[in-house]
Inverse folding.
């Protein structure tokens, strides 16, 4: 099923420097490799930035308001902020360049993290909530950056390109939660509340990620790939998607559904795990360790996952995502709350299932789009992804407050099974 054509966003009459890339496959591959290196560097910083809100956001709000029923609000806020920012980043990228959209998002996220620090100093819950919304822009850019590596990738390189960007996030994302204690001590030493300490790291990391892209992401991969695609269409030499800039609606729906479901399950269980651990006497360092393992599992296996998605297939890995999330939810539900080992295993499986779903879903989205409409479509899909995380984070606190962490985990396990009929539908003609 196809949607109507959209006019190419850039003229076929190209500048000399751009024409050189259009005419030279070697230069295209050189730019592809350079883009991956720049994205990898920015993702290391970006990963450290996103870890702060994940690890201590709920604890900070709980401390300021004195109730755990709102502990899921921070995740809801920064993922809701991420939704709006994702749409803006996608549209800025399509209209101007990947570089413009991603840099704007990272710098805005850094300002949001600074706002969280000021809110903690002033004990202002209104400023805290507003700042968490803005902080979500950094999360949006961190996630959208995975698409930059696919702009010049061949169909058989796409999942691998996504996986390389995500793998690099591991270094910052794992270091961030494990620096919670250190940043807390540093915050104390300068008169900032302990739980705001990780946001000092987040502000620095997001701003550095934006600066890396601003300085080095030239030429822009989306500008080049769009010019290549439109030139091939005019010359009648397009090698993919013979209907030009049409969007494969079915492929977009399937890819979006896979990512949305995995994001909802992951965000809901992850958000309440630190609160659940606090109930069983675990300290901030132990919480950071568990979340560190979880985030590591979200990103570290990416190279292997990308290889499997390209070789085994997108839909097969979507099924693997569902079964892995099912195992995670069951283990989290029945593991004793004082068992660090079982909690780590449950959260590792949770991150791994998310990893399978995000990379396979992303590859499906890229397969189904054209450079002239790709960034805008990707931004729109990632809005749904962010809203899914926001709703999962918000509802998780309510479920745990009225029922239990086990009930939340079992619900996530059951929802993950919905990926199976999605895959079955994707194979129907």
């Amino acid at each position: 099923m196809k949607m109507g054509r959209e006019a190419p966003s850039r003229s076929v009459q190209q500048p000399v420097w751009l024409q050189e890339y259009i005419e030279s496959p070697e230069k295209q591959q050189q730019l592809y490799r350079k883009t991956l290196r720049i994205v990898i560097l920015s993702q290391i910083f970006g990963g450290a930035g996103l870890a702060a809100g994940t690890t201590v956001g709920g604890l900070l709000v709980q401390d300021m308001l004195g109730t755990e029923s709102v502990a899921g609000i921070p995740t809801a806020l920064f993922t809701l902020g991420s939704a709006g920012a994702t749409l803006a980043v996608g549209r800025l990228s399509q209209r101007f360049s990947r570089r413009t959209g991603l840099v704007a998002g990272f710098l805005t996220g850094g300002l949001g993290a600074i706002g969280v620090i000021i809110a903690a100093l002033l004990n202002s819950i209104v400023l805290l909530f507003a700042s968490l919304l803005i902080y979500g822009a950094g999360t949006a850019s961190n996630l959208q950056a995975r698409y930059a590596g696919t702009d010049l990738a061949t169909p058989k390189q796409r999942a691998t390109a996504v996986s390389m960007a995500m793998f690099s996030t591991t270094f910052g994302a794992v270091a961030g939660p494990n620096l919670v204690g250190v940043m807390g001590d540093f915050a104390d030493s300068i008169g900032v509340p302990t739980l705001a300490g990780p946001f000092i790291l987040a502000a620095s990391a997001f701003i550095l990620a934006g600066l890396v892209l601003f300085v080095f992401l030239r030429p822009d991969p989306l500008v080049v790939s769009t010019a290549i695609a439109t030139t091939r269409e005019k010359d009648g030499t397009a090698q993919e998607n013979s209907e030009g800039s049409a969007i494969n609606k079915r492929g977009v729906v399937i890819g979006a559904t896979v990512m949305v479901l995995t994001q909802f399950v992951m965000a809901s269980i992850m958000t309440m795990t630190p609160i659940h651990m606090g109930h069983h006497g675990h300290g901030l360092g132990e919480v950071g360790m568990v979340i560190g393992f979880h985030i590591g599992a979200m990103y570290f296996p990416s190279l292997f996952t990308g290889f499997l998605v390209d070789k085994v297939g997108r839909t097969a890995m979507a099924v693997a995502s569902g079964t892995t999330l099912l195992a995670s939810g069951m283990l989290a539900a029945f593991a004793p709350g004082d068992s660090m080992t079982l909690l780590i295993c449950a959260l590792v499986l949770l991150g791994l299932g998310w990893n399978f779903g995000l990379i396979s879903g992303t590859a499906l989205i890229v397969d189904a789009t054209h450079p002239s409409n790709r960034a805008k479509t990707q931004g729109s899909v990632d809005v749904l992804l962010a809203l899914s995380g926001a709703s999962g984070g918000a509802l998780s606190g309510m479920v745990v407050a009225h029922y239990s962490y086990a009930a939340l985990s079992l619900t996530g396990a059951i929802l993950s099974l919905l990926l199976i009929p999605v895959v079955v539908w994707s194979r129907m003609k």
Summary: Residues 1-12, 240-244 have pLDDT under 50 and may be disordered. The chain has one domain: 21-426. DSSP finds 17 helices and no strands in the chain. The two ends are 10 Å apart (CA to CA).
